[in-house]
Amino acid sequence: MVRSILTAELSARFAEIALGHVGREYPNKPDHVLAGPADARTPRELHPIFYGSYDWHSCVHSYWLLAYLLRRFPEIAPAARIRALFDGQFVADKVAGECAYLAAPTARGFKRPYGWAWLLKLAAELTHHDDRRWSQALAPLAEIFAQRFRDFLPLATYPVRVGTHFNTAFGLRMAADYATATEDDALTALLCETGLRWYGEDADCPAWGEPSGDDFQSSALIEAECMRRLLPRAEFAAWLDRFLPRIAQHQPATLFRPATVSDRSDGKIAHLDGLNLSRAWCWRSIASGLDDARRGLAEETAEHHLAAGLPHIAGDYMGEHWLATYAVLALEA
């Protein structure tokens, strides 16, 4: 089996795609509550940094994509443009504008938990760059979302297990990288405690609802990836034995079959390309936590999903504004 990898050439292509839409204000799908006529404002007025890429959360994780590719391949052709973009966007007044938006009472649940998670993932990535100006500039916004996790998780009696933006396992998994990068042991502990409270007793997952026509995440596999990230290796292995006890028998079968995408111009159906890529990410990551024959099976299954998703990163804006992010997660897992 030949393992698909992220190359400098592919990184340059993905970076060009992202640079083409992080500053593209329209079309735009705002997640915005109007409390009065004065709240009817353009995306750029509402969000001075993350106004592009069709929606706020896609813009955030496209910035993560650019930051990651810049660090991974600092000599790629678009590198100077990425640095110039960050120099112009990650500045105090624009970060203050993003923070001000969140101060409104109507924004309490804004992008919870998906956008929260991606903003923290971006902040975590920027801490790894030699130029710390970008990380320092974004820190006030990151702290707002970290505090939102601290406030929300103790109130969240139940997890959300869907395959879309509301999935709580995804939120915990990405926030964990921020907690590690910032050495926030209290946040790490809260994320682990919440993961065990929500998912610790889950067993024999049937995955019978996958995929739905709107999924871009596997509710089963992202839960497994969440627990791999949060638990010590031995504890994860024992948990996975209970949660997905028949991986060696290719069961549940639906998790091993890439999804079929019938219309990539339909934003919801196009989610299924993302499902194939995010499953590949999860399968590769889960494989890293295994020490038996299931590891090879997980890696092979990831390759099948990558083969289904990678040819469709660009071509229609409904997928083009976000799919490269999940391709990089999968290729680098």
- Note the main sheet: none
Distance, first to last CA? 17 Å
C-alpha-based Rg, rounded: 19 Å
SS summary, helix count: 15
Structural class: mainly alpha
The arrangement of helices and strands along the chain is: HHHHHHHHHHHHHHH
pLDDT averaged residue by residue: 97
What portion of residues belong to β-strands?
under 5%
Helix content: 55-70%
Low-confidence stretches: none
Report on this structure.
This protein is mainly α. 46% of the residues are buried. The model has no long low-confidence stretch (mean pLDDT 97). It has a domain at 200-333. The protein has helices at residues 8-19, 43-46, 56-72, 79-89, 92-102, 114-126, 133-152, 168-181, 185-199, 219-230, 233-243, 271-287, 293-309, 317-320, 323-332.
